[in-house]
Amino acid sequence: MKKSQPNYRTLVVTVDNKFGVLARVSGLFARRGVNIKSLAVAPTDKAEFSRITVDLDIELESVSLDQIIKQLDKLINVVEIRALDPDKSVERELMIVTVKAEASQRDELVDHLDKVGGKVLNIGTESMMLSLVETSSVIDDFESFLSNFGIVELQRTGRVALDSL
Amino acid sequence: MTSENIDGGKALIRALEKEGVEVMFGLPGGAILPVYDPIIDSNIRHILVRHEQGAGHMAEGYAQATGKPGVAMVTSGPAATNIVTPLCDAYLDSIPLVVITGQVPLAAIGTDAFQECDTTGITMGVTKHNFLVKDAQDIPRIVKEAFHIATTGRPGPVLIDVPKDIVDPKNSRSQLNWVDDPEMDLPGYEPEKNFDLSGIEKALELIQNSERPIFYVGGGILKARAAEALRELVEITGIHVVTTLMARGAFPDSHELCLGMPGMHGNYTAVTSMQKADLLVALGARFDDRVTGKVDGFAPDAKIIHVDIDPAEIGKVRKPDVAITGDCRLVIETMVDLLKKQGVASTDRSEWKSSISGWQERFPLTYENSEPGSKLKPQYVIEQLRDLAPDDAIVASGVGQHQMWTSQYWNFDSPYTWINSGGLGTMGFSIPAAIGAKVGNPDRMVWAVDGDGCFQMTAQELVTATVENIPIKVALLNNSYLGMVRQWQDMFYQERYSEVFLSEDVPNYKAWAESMGCVGIRVDSPEEVPEAIAKANEIEDRSVVIDFRTAAEEHVYPMVPSGQDNSSIVVPPSQESQER
Prior knowledge:
The structure holds two protein chains of two kinds.
Chain A: E1 8-16, H1 21-31, E2 35-43, E3 49-57, H2 65-74, E4 78-83, E5 89-100, H3 106-116, E6 119-123, E7 127-134, H4 136-147, E8 151-156, E9 160-163
Antiparallel strand pairs in A: 1-3, 1-4, 2-3, 5-7, 5-8, 5-9, 6-7
Chain B: E1 5-7, H1 8-18, E2 23-27, H2 33-36, E3 45-48, H3 52-66, E4 70-74, H4 78-82, H5 84-92, E5 97-103, H6 119-123, E6 129-132, H7 139-151, E7 157-163, H8 164-167, E8 175-177, H9 197-209, E9 213-217, H10 220-223, H11 227-237, E10 240-243, H12 268-276, E11 279-283, H13 289-292, E12 303-308, E13 322-325, H14 328-342, H15 350-362, H16 378-388, E14 394-397, H17 401-409, E15 418-419, H18 430-440, E16 446-451, H19 452-458, H20 461-467, E17 473-478, H21 483-492, H22 509-515, E18 519-523, H23 529-538, E19 544-549
Parallel strand pairs in B: 2-3, 2-4, 4-5, 5-7, 6-7, 9-10, 9-11, 11-12, 12-13, 14-15, 14-16, 16-17, 17-19, 18-19
Antiparallel strand pairs in B: 1-8
Helix pairs in contact in B: 1-7, 3-5, 3-18, 11-14, 12-15, 16-17, 16-23
C-alpha cells in the first residue's frame, strides 16, 4: 500500500443535527468553488449533534483552508471544526459493489476479497455483490482490481475518520 | 411559571415586545397577515413602507443611528426577495437586523404555491443566520435567539421565516404555551472571544517602538461602542488616526490627530500616511479592497496589528504580525490601562509628524467653486449643508460621487452621525436609511445626501415619511448623470459615456417632492445655496427636497485607480505639480 500525497484535505465538522445544516456547510464550499470529494454525515453519540467528515479537492493557492475553517466556524450551527491530520488519524470507508463474475472467475475473486478482508453479500447467476470496509486507498486498489471483471454497480460511503490513539 | 396558551402570531409580537422592540418597518401581505393583526393591540410602532427594500434600509438606518437592532417584517415571495438587498447590505456592513418574512403554510412549501419562494435558501449567504419556524412552540425561543445572534459578536442580519399556519389562530398548529424566558439552544455560537494579554503586550511593544505608526480605524469601533476608549488611546499615544468610510465619526475630524478617510477616494494624507507607515494598528477594520488598493503594494513597510472580534477577518487579506481576536472596546481599554502603568515610550516621531503636516499642507481636499449663474459644485453644496446644520445632525448618503464628497467634506465629530452603504454600495440607500435614523432620533436633524440616480430608486419612501410624519431633509446633488460611472468613463473609457446620462429635465424633482407631501426647492446657482438650506432647516413639520443642479464634469479627487497600489493616487489637477 503506497501512501501518496493526498490531493484533498479532510475536515471534521460537528454540527447541530437539524434540517438545513448540511446545506449551510456545503453552500459555503460551493460559493468558493471548492469541490467536495467525499462526504459522510451521521449523528454522533449525542443525538443532537451530527458529525460531517468531508474531503475537499483543494487548490491551495486559490483558497485558504484556514480561511474556510474560520468561516465555517462562524456558521451558527457549527459546534466544532478542525482539519484532520492524515498521519494522526484512522480512517475507513465502506464500499458495496456488484461485479460480473462467471462461476469460473469466482475463486480468484473471493480469494482476493478474503485477502483485503471483504465480504460476499449476495450471489446471483452472473454476478456477485461484495462489501469492503477499508481505507480509501485500499478500496481504490480493490476497485481497480474489480474493474477487470466488470463493475455493474458500485457505491462508496465517503471516508469517516477519528484521531488515532 | 404560569402556562398560557396563545397563537403564534400573538407570540411573535409578544416576543418582539419582550426584546424591547419599539418600532418596526414593514408591509403586510397574505402569508404574514396573522402576525399583522396583533400589531393593532401592541405598543410597537409599525411604519408602513411603500416597498419592502425601504423597510430593510429603514431598519438599517435606525440600527446605525441608535445602536439598537432594526426590525422589519414583510410577507412571503416577492416581499422576501425585495428585502434581500437590505439583508446583504446589513451583512456586509455588520448591522444588527431582525427580519421576519411570511411563508406559505408548511404543507404548501415546495409546491410552487402562490407567493412562495425559498426564502431561507435565498438568504443563506446574506444573513448571519436564518430560521424557518416549523413549530409554533419554537417562536419565543427563536425570536430570542435571533436578537442574540444579531446583536452579539460581530453584529449582522438574522431572518425568521414564518409559515402562515404556524401563526394563524384559525389553524390548530399555531397554538403554543407561551414561555416567558425560553432557553436558547445555540451550542455552536460563542460570540465572546477572550483575548489573551500576551497579544496586547506584544502589540504595545510594537506601538511603543514604531516610528511611523497609524491607527487604522474601521466600523468595528462603532459597533463596539469604543469611540471614547479610542480617543483615550489616541491621546495617550499621540498617534494619528484614519477613519474608514464605515468609521467616519468614530474619532472627531476636528481633532489634530485625525487624518480623515483613507482609501480609493480618501484624502492624500490619510492614504499616503498608511502607505508609508511602519506600523498599522487595525481596529475593527477589515482591509477592504477600497482601502488597500492593490493588496500586494499596500503599506509595504508596515507591520500589522489586527484587532477584530471576528476571527475570520484576521489574516483574510493581510497576515498580521500581532492578532488580537476580541471586542475592540475591551481590547483598547486594556491597552490604555497597560500604557498608563508602563508609561508611554518617548520614541522620536518628529520627522514622521512633519511629513504628515507637509502632506496636509500640500494636498488638502480642494475644488474650485463655480461662478454665480453657473452650475453648482457639489463640494460647495456639502460644505454649506455642513456649516448650516446643527452639531448633532445625522447625515445619510446614497452611493456614488455624492457619498464620497459627503464623507470627505462633512465634519464628523461624533459617532453615529454618518450612515451609508459601505460594503455593498447600495444605490437608493439614503432616503429610507435617513427615515430610519429619524425615527430613532425624532429630535435631531437628519439629512439625506442623494444623487439623482439613487433618488429615483427609492424616492417613493418620502410618501412614507410624509404619511408617518417623519420629516427628513434631502439634498439631491443632481447632475443628470450616474456620476461615479461617468467619472470612470471619463478616466478609463476615453470619455465614452455609455448609458450614464439620465435626463436634464425629467423627472421634475420639485413637483415630485411636492406630490409626495414634501417641500420642493430647486437651486440652480451657487449664490442661492445658503438661503435654500436655511429655509429647509427651518421646516420641521414636513420633509424637504432640495434639487441642487450640479456640474456633471466634476470628479471626486483624490482617486486611487482600481487595481493599482495606493502610491498611484491621482490628485486634482491643481495639485499635480506638488512635490509628493
